[in-house]
Amino acid sequence: MKEPTLNAEPAVQRRLLDLQDLDLQLDQVAHKRASLPEHQALKDLAAEKSVVDRELVTADTEVSDLQREQKKAESDVEQVRQRRARNQQRLDSGQVTSPRDLENLQHEIGSLDRRISDLEDAELEVMEKLEAAEVVQTELRARAEAFAGRQSELETSRDAAVKELDEQRAGFVDNRAVVLAELPEGLITQYQRLREHNGGIGAAPLVGKRCMGCRMELAPSDLNAIKAAAPDAVLRCEECGRILVRTADSAA
Q1: How far apart are alpha carbons 36 and 167 in whole angstroms?
Q2: What are the φ and ψ backbone dihedral angles of 248, each rounded to 5 degrees?
Q3: Contact present, 187 and 3 (Cβ < 8 Å)
Q4: pLDDT tens digits along 12-33
Q5: Which of 15, 70, 200, 248 sits between 20 and 30 A of 231, alpha carbons compared?
Q6: What letter would DSSP give residue 3?
Q7: Closest listed residue to residue 194, CA positions, set 151, 126, 159, 243
């Protein structure tokens, strides 16, 4: 279906270029807002923090398990020590007089001494593991806290940048509304449709012999047709199809 021929006063058509400029500025603001370095930095930080958080959960679990193991080791040592102390007390009190019973008691004390030594070695090993695990846990907690601080800094920086860009956008939107009020509905509709299908540019000036939308130099026949067109005729670039606005810098 062929599009209807549009007409608009030259000044109105040039005003369309102001709308195009505002729309490009709005596009730039939207792009800057979406591509703020803080967005990627926060995303990367979140990924790193996720790894550290998982490692910290593992470290917390290991420390908790080793603490329980240490308490059990301490309890085991204490129980054997108490038993040895009771046997030593019986031996020292002279209550045991039978040579066989004395020999058995001394043998048991010797066994308990070896058992205590083994348990103390096991307890020491657990303590060393716990100490190492606590070092890792402390380091991971420090990293997690550093992430939180860095995240707060990035969020503050991002929010400030977003606020500034939103203020710029609000100014462009207000100016755009003023320009829109000066343009006929048909011209706006055609411009917006062309803008959607042409990379955000629906109207471009003719500078010299060149359409500044596609940057192509127009053929002599196209330039002659432009020269012959009425001043209020809304023209289209034969190369890219965008609305072509004649200005003081046009060669036609």
Answers
A1: 16
A2: -65, -20
A3: no
A4: 999 999 999 999 999 999 999 9
A5: 200
A6: P
A7: 243
* pLDDT digits 0-9 by tens, 50-88: 999 999 999 999 999 999 999 999 999 999 999 999 989
Tokens of 136: 């890792």
Torsion on CA atoms 10, 16, 17, 21, rounded to nearest 10: 160
Collapsing DSSP states into helix, strand and coil, what is residue 245? strand
**Is 204 exposed, middle or buried, given 0-12, 13-18 or 19+ CB atoms closer than 10 A?**
buried
Which residues, in sequence order, are CB contacts of 237 under 8 Å at separation 6+? 204, 211, 213, 214, 216, 218, 243, 244
Alpha helix segments (H runs only) across the chain: 10-34, 37-93, 99-180, 185-197, 220-228
DSSP conformational letter for 243: E
Q: Which residue has the tokens 């072509």?
A: 244
- 194 by DSSP, 3-state: which? helix
What's the pTM?
0.73
Residue 216, SS3? coil
Query: What CA–CA distance (Å, rounded) separates 239 from 235?
Result: 12
> Tokens in use for 232?
């209020």
Output the CA angle 23-1-242, nearest 5 degrees. 30
Task: Please give the structure tokens belonging to residue 122.
Answer: 């096991």
